[in-house]
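Researcher: I'm preparing a figure for a lab meeting and need a structural model of a single chain. I don't have an experimental structure, so a prediction will have to do for now. The sequence is pasted below. Please return the structure as tokens so I can convert it later.
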Amino acid sequence: MLEWIRMSLMKRLHVNSDKCERLWEGKKLCPTVREELNRRMGKACDCIALKSTSKLYEVETFDGRRYSVDLKNMSCSCREWDLSGIPCCHGLSAIGVEKLDIEDFVHSCYTIETYNKVYMYTLQPMVGVDMWEKTGYITPFPPKLWQKEKRKAIKSKKKGVDEEPSGRTKKKNKTEILPKQPFKVSCSFCKHAGHNERTCEWKKFVEEFPDETPPKKEQNSQDVENPPLTENAPIDEMMLDGEIPPLTQQTQPDQIC
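Model: Understood. Here is the structure written out token by token.
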């Protein structure tokens, strides 16, 4: 792999150096930078440059924005010229008013002269392995690959509720896990446990024979007029017939007298 990287680098250095000598001879800027300048010159037509001093300009765009351009320091208040090293559309508008060469205001790193200096150094060719000088030492061998020893997975049985977990297992929660309680099903129709309303036999019987259901017990008129006396009944209701109810735990002698 290292030999392949060395050969590809040697080829790349030669191709770029040869391209600079044959194709770009007599030019000052690289083709990519020249294309970017042409694109920005199209936008410079919408700018109006007003001269302040010999090297300072105030440039106004078509949308009403204004920028300050310094040709001496090659900078613009939009910061595009400062960051890229290529004049922005505002700077190109000021350069056009001065009628100067645009290529003189581009950073030197984009020139063909600098490009040629980068690829002037090449990698020297090498001979094959069979022509290398023999030293007489033992040929070094690569180190052995270390592999982790495989071992069988330890399967732990499920622990009961009362059993404590082993040291290898970790508790998921610090709280105790309670056993599941059995759920009792009750019917909402007959109020009995062991089944639900869908499987209720009494409901099926009522739907199939509605006339045979026993009628509800009617209350007698005497029971309604004279209800049974209870401990929780109020005193006013118990004294309807003029009789004094017996004393209970809830009644007090002071209230009766």
